[in-house]
UniProtKB/TrEMBL annotation:
It holds the Pfam family TctA. The keyword Transmembrane helix applies. Keywords: Membrane, Transmembrane, Transmembrane helix. InterPro entries: DUF112_TM. This is Tripartite tricarboxylate transporter TctA. Residues 20-437 form the DUF112 domain. Coiled coil: none annotated. The keyword Transmembrane applies. The chain crosses the membrane at residues 20-49, 61-82, 109-140, 147-164, 170-188, 200-223, 258-280, 315-336, 356-377, 389-407, 413-442, 463-486.
Length: 498
């Protein structure tokens, strides 16, 4: 009851004209920035930090929250329409969203993503209000073996459901893990795969890898086959969801937050793992398994709902523990410190107006995001009417600008081209792109957690399975690995009986 009363007071703060203006401005800026490859929400908030020096803290954080959610949806827009994720959380949306767009259903894919963001954000924020102390306590108890088990689950899950074979999925994952090794070893300081270049000592940024594999690789692939195609613009399609689409997606919209929120709340969480696991779950539960990878609307609705809910989950650890779980949360933590505010267990007592105003503004931002982007879905989808030579030339330009903006180094453009050629080769030989991106994102973190777990257990492998949580995760992994082996003989037995 106290939380409900505090939330009502927060709505009184968030619904003032000035704070409504900051929320609307944040959603608009976030959506626009999310559309640009390479410029994600973390960079947007970081760039706007100096601008907010003169603002009241509550208004500044309300705008930051709007940028966060808006950028996540903007990233899914280009991911769906152009196969170019604006940020890492939008990678999964390209798997089925882009085939839908190519089939003339881009508006439906964008509508499913917008409603998914709204549903996930609303449910995630409700869970934030109700479960913040409990989830924060659970997050503190999760150790290095548990993190490593979760990441192994993500590796196995994504290589099991994508591509024409597991071997190709594992080969793609190996490419990503190799790219993730570039840079300095975090424990020993030794250079790995840097070829003596100081610019590579910090490693290859995930954004450059994602943009190179998706945008540059796709543009080169289209250019190589442009003469074979008709070259005609792709139709936009009807600007609404049919009843059959709603029947297929409403369960996905509700399942996504149950996966996204807990992963967003734990350290080393974020939106990447839950979006991948949501995609795997939707494929397992769907009656249209053959459509996945070719334009299944559930493959857009579920992961986008999970991504939005994970954004609410990240605020749990940041507000209650002062522990950032994503890059955006880290930048927002720096913003708190800029105002002389220290997030932690006492924040709700010392700054109740700011905290509950921020939480209430999340509900307001979700409504603004849906009201802004749902009517604009057909307009965004008209990007596909641009002739493909001009469209992909623009993609190459913005991809290069986004990659250069990451570090401001000319070498980043060369790395982008090399990774784009790798993406082209992967398409040529049928390797799925997503496991490679997974390897780059989670590979370094998995290595760090593995080493930490082995150090705690004095090098004993038993230390990786000495918690009930890790044992449960490895049991799920065993089921994923054994299921195809068990399903084959069972299917043959059924056919023999028939």
């Amino acid at each position: 009851m106290d939380s409900l009363n505090s939330l009502l007071d927060g709505f009184g703060t968030a619904l003032t004209p000035a704070n409504l203006l900051w929320a609307a401005l944040g959603v608009l800026l976030g959506t626009a920035i999310g559309v640009l490859p390479g410029i994600g929400p973390a960079m947007a908030v970081a760039l706007l930090l100096p601008v907010t020096y003169g603002l009241e803290p509550t208004g500044a954080f309300i705008m930051f929250a709007g940028i966060y959610y808006g950028a996540m949806f903007g990233g899914s827009t280009t991911s769906i329409l152009l196969n170019t994720p604006g940020e890492s959380a939008a990678v999964v949306a390209a798997i089925d969203g882009n085939p839908m767009a190519k089939a003339g259903r881009g508006a439906q894919a964008l509508a499913a993503a917008a409603i998914g963001h709204f549903a996930g954000g609303m449910i995630g924020t409700i869970l934030l209000v109700a479960l913040a102390p409990t989830v924060a306590a659970l997050a503190v108890d999760i150790g290095a073996p548990d993190y490593f088990a979760i990441m192994v689950l993500a590796f196995i899950a994504v290589t099991s459901v994508l591509g024409s074979s597991r071997i190709r999925g594992l080969a793609s994952l190996l490419v990503g893990l190799t790219l993730g090794l570039v840079g300095l070893d975090q424990l020993t300081g030794q250079q790995r795969l840097t070829f003596g270049s100081l610019q590579l000592a910090d490693g290859i940024d995930v954004v450059i890898v994602a943009v190179g594999l998706f945008a540059i690789g796709e543009a080169l692939w289209v250019a190589a086959h442009l003469r074979r195609g008709s070259g005609e613009a792709i139709p936009v399609g009807r600007p609404w969801l049919a009843r059959s689409d709603v029947r297929r997606t409403w369960k996905s919209w509700l399942r996504g937050p149950l996966i996204g929120f807990p992963f967003g709340a734990v350290p080393a969480g974020g939106a990447e793992i839950p979006t991948f696991l949501s995609y795997v779950t939707e494929k397992r539960l769907s009656r249209h398994k053959d459509e996945f990878g070719k334009g299944a609307i559930e493959g857009v609705a579920g992961p986008e709902s999970a991504a939005s809910a994970s954004a609410a989950g990240t605020l749990v650890s940041m507000l209650t523990l002062g522990l950032p779980t994503t890059a955006v949360a880290a930048v927002m933590l720096a913003a708190f410190q800029q105002y002389g505010i220290q997030p932690g267990p006492l924040l709700f007592e010392r700054e109740p107006e700011l905290v509950w105003g921020l939480i209430a503004s999340l509900f307001v931002g979700m409504v603004l995001l849906l009201a802004l982007n749902l009517p604009l879905a057909p307009l965004w989808a008209k990007l596909l009417r641009i002739p493909r030579p001009y469209l992909y030339a623009g993609i190459l330009f913005f991809a290069a600008v986004g990659a250069y903006a990451v570090g401001g180094e000319a070498l980043d453009l060369l790395i982008l081209l090399v990774i784009g050629l790798i993406g082209f080769g992967m398409r040529r030989y049928g390797l799925p792109v997503l496991p490679a991106v997974i390897g780059v994102i989670l590979g370094p973190a998995a290595e760090q957690q593995l080493r930490r777990a082995l150090q705690i257990s004095d090098g004993s492998v038993i230390g990786l399975v000495d918690t009930p949580f890790s044992v449960a995760v490895y049991a799920v992994i065993a089921v994923l690995l054994a299921w195809p082996l068990l399903r084959g003989p069972a299917g043959r037995l059924r056919r023999a009986k028939a």
